[in-house]
TrEMBL record:
This protein's record includes keyword Ribonucleoprotein: no
Protein's UniProt name: Protein kinase domain-containing protein
Organism: Ruminococcus albus
Pfam families named in the record: Pkinase
Membrane-crossing segments per the record: 420-445
Domain called Protein kinase: residue spans: 21-388
UniProt keyword Disulfide bond, yes or no: no
Amino acid sequence: MQIHGTKFTYTIDTSYQDLYRYGDGFIARGTESIVYKGIRAAEGISSENIRMSCVLKFKRRGTNDRILRRFKSKDLKIFNDLQGCRSVVRIYDLIEDLGDFSIKFEHVADGEDEFYIDRHGFFCVVEEFIEGKTLEEFCLEYGDFPLVMRSNQAVTGFNDYSDESKMRTKKYVTDNDFCLRFQSVIYNFAVKLCDVLDYMHRNRILHMDIKPDNIMITNAGNEVVLIDFGRANYMDYGKDYVTVQFGGESLEEYGTVGYAAPEAYNLEMVPHAHFTSENLNEELKGACRLTVESDIFSLGATLWECMNIFVLYMNNAEYRKKFLRGYHYQTFFDTSIMLNEDTYCNRDLSLASVHFYEKLEQIIKKATRSRSYNYFDKSNKNYYHDYATLRDDIIDARERSPAVLRTDDIKVRNSFNVSAVFMGLLVTLLCFQGFLYFFGGYFAAHKIDSIMENYQVSKHDALRRAAEEQMKATDPDGRKRIYERIYDFYYNENEGTDKKVMSEEEAEDLAQLLDMIPDEEYSRRQFDELLGNTDRQVLLAFSEYAAAADLDIKEDSECISYKLLEKIYESRQPRYANECYEALVEYGDREEYNNLLVYLAKQLNTDEKIDKITDQQDSDEPDAIVRHSVKDYLDSFEGRGV
């Protein structure tokens, strides 16, 4: 069943299966939204010739459309103000009337009745689809962590595993090397989160629902993307806080239990919560005031959970219930044991591995410090009051963190005593490595064949990983052959249809595989061909991926196709229109880049962008003549073929 939006038609992608294995496109259910994986198609274009991923976020309309009106007046403005930050999820469309669309929602909690998502109770927000995992899922699946075995019925825990599996998982709290690697990853994520939240704060916006489930980690490049701005708001005029009313789903706290700062709780409605310290609410009734310190508390709570997640998941059945049915039960946090001063605040790493650095623990404790009366006073050095200071402390801790703990020095000393033995084993190891090198490539090639036999787009990630495994086991020429095989497969998999196209995900996979080939000229040539044959309808989404990913091709000053792709990405913003237009003029006669040129011209061919271009043209002619000339030039690309 279709939903008709402003420029696109949307359907639920029932082929999508995430970690929960639902198989009906359902992703998650949050406090305010029900989220499905979607596909968007331009009106009038055959669905076989376009595949554009998106997220369909269904929100309740609220009494007398209260939530819908709030979204239009506040949420859309926030998203618009944050579009300059690539680490904030993008909104594509707002669909106020779902028309004839109706779907039965079956992923309900125990004791809850099933219901229908339709025009009477819901509206739809279309957002970009982030190919990745939540921070929570990323942590649990880091390395070869085998505990995440989920379904809509149960979550397998540590006690359900065999003795062999238990021994393997215990390394996540005892193995020094693993703990230090994992800690380094969390440091990097924390720095990126500080950058994103600082950008928001400088725009006078508080997120007010920071938690691992609202932070996405992309599969490509492990970039951080902040999602779910349903509770975000602007600071009060002339103030450095946000005043919010308790009510509806925010009757007991504003935010999420376990991550919201103490001042975000409505203590009258949560009798089992015992926060004895003062907060900022003062004489307010049924409301609270939240500050940047409140968001920093939530960030500290998020980092605390990341560093403790392995122990919590292995040893606490209540914590594992958080992962049931695709949305969080909060029974682990929402208890009198957790909601009190001693446990909820001043969080430490006493339950986690001893290998984690003490300075990181100090940072988390400061971020989640219990509230004194003047905790928001900028002169109170016991608290973080801005992200710049927090970021500096995290970077300092990262740089000071040991590569090998002092307790392991004895191992280093002993290594010198057995160096002769290692030299004797060197030849054997090299032979064994050659054995693995050959057979690793063989099994990877067999895996590629198996995936291709029953291929669908949802398997693109598995195919890319298999190709990467085979490429690692061969020389540069072999890597080129593997890349060309995957390229030909993706490009010809739709053979027999009117048009051969690749999905956005497949194009991204090929870009990643090209990064493994140490031949700049070859990579440039193949990147040109890739963009020349990528469907124009997915070029914008691919340009967003390329802008965020760490690709070697970005450093190639001679790669014209990437320059044009970069301009396609910038063309979304009218203020860059003239720079994009100049690139179009510079390369406009290069027919080998027609695919990119035609799309770039189309992106620029709007009244607002044409006006911007006209204003910046260095010409003595009247503006009307200049504008007409610009418009004619952009129109001239409409008739071009690929």
